[in-house]
Amino acid sequence: MKLDVIKLDGGSAGSVDLDEALFGLEPRADILHRVVRWQRNKAQAGTHKVKTRSETSYSTKKIYRQKGTGGARHGDRNAPIFRKGGIYKGPTPRDHGHDLPKKFRKLGLRHALSAKAKAGELVVIEAAEAEGKTGALAKQVKNLGWKRALIIDGAQVNESFAKAARNIEGLDVLPSMGANVYDILKRDTLVLTKAGVEALEARLK
C-alpha cells in the first residue's frame, strides 16, 4: 500500500510503499488485547504486602483463660478477628507477568500498525529533525493537528528533536526498538519516519 510522505512543515515529500504484511492486516481485537494485557501485567510492580498474624506487633500472651469466659478461645491479640490483628490470606510480593510467545508479540505489533493504518491515523514523515527549539516544534505539531501523537524513528532518535519534543504535552518519541502495542494504541496518531518504517519492516519480517 502507498502512503504520502510529508515534512514537519506540512510540505509534501513524495510517497512510500508500506508492506501489506505489516500495515494491511485486518486488525483483531483479541490479539491486541492479549498483547496489551501481557505488557501491563509485566509492568505491574507486585510490591503489595500486608502483615500476617506472625508479623503484627501485639504481645503473644494469652489474653484470657481458655475456659469459663463464655466467649471464643483466643491465644493472643494478633488473630485476624481483632482490630490491628494480622490479615488472613492478604497480598504478598509477587510477579504478575506471564509468558507470551515472541511470535505472538510480533503478530500483535503488526496488528497494531494495521489498526492505525485502517483507521487513517497513520502518518509518515520524511525525518524527525528539529533545531532544538520546543516552541517552533510545538507550532508545527499544532499546525499538523497532532493532539496525542507517538513518533517512532529509526534505530536512533535525533537528539535535538527529542530535546525539543520532551516538553510538548501529548507528544512522545521512541526509537524503532521501543515500538510496542500499548503505546501505539494509546495515542490518537501514529507518526513514523521513513527510517522508522524501514526499521520496523526489518524487525517484524
TrEMBL record:
<keyword id="KW-0694">RNA-binding</keyword>
<dbReference type="InterPro" id="IPR013005">
    <property type="entry name" value="Ribosomal_uL4-like"/>
</dbReference>
<dbReference type="GO" id="GO:1990904">
    <property type="term" value="C:ribonucleoprotein complex"/>
</dbReference>
<keyword id="KW-0689">Ribosomal protein</keyword>
<comment type="similarity">
    <text>Belongs to the universal ribosomal protein uL4 family.</text>
</comment>
<dbReference type="GO" id="GO:0005840">
    <property type="term" value="C:ribosome"/>
</dbReference>
<comment type="function">
    <text>One of the primary rRNA binding proteins, this protein initially binds near the 5'-end of the 23S rRNA. It is important during the early stages of 50S assembly. It makes multiple contacts with different domains of the 23S rRNA in the assembled 50S subunit and ribosome.</text>
</comment>
<feature type="region of interest" description="Disordered">
    <location>
        <begin position="64"/>
        <end position="99"/>
    </location>
</feature>
<protein>
    <recommendedName>
        <fullName>Large ribosomal subunit protein uL4</fullName>
    </recommendedName>
</protein>
<dbReference type="InterPro" id="IPR002136">
    <property type="entry name" value="Ribosomal_uL4"/>
</dbReference>
<keyword id="KW-0699">rRNA-binding</keyword>
<dbReference type="InterPro" id="IPR023574">
    <property type="entry name" value="Ribosomal_uL4_dom_sf"/>
</dbReference>
<dbReference type="GO" id="GO:0019843">
    <property type="term" value="F:rRNA binding"/>
</dbReference>
<keyword id="KW-0687">Ribonucleoprotein</keyword>
<comment type="subunit">
    <text>Part of the 50S ribosomal subunit.</text>
</comment>
<comment type="function">
    <text>Forms part of the polypeptide exit tunnel.</text>
</comment>
<dbReference type="GO" id="GO:0003735">
    <property type="term" value="F:structural constituent of ribosome"/>
</dbReference>
<dbReference type="GO" id="GO:0006412">
    <property type="term" value="P:translation"/>
</dbReference>
<dbReference type="Pfam" id="PF00573">
    <property type="entry name" value="Ribosomal_L4"/>
</dbReference>
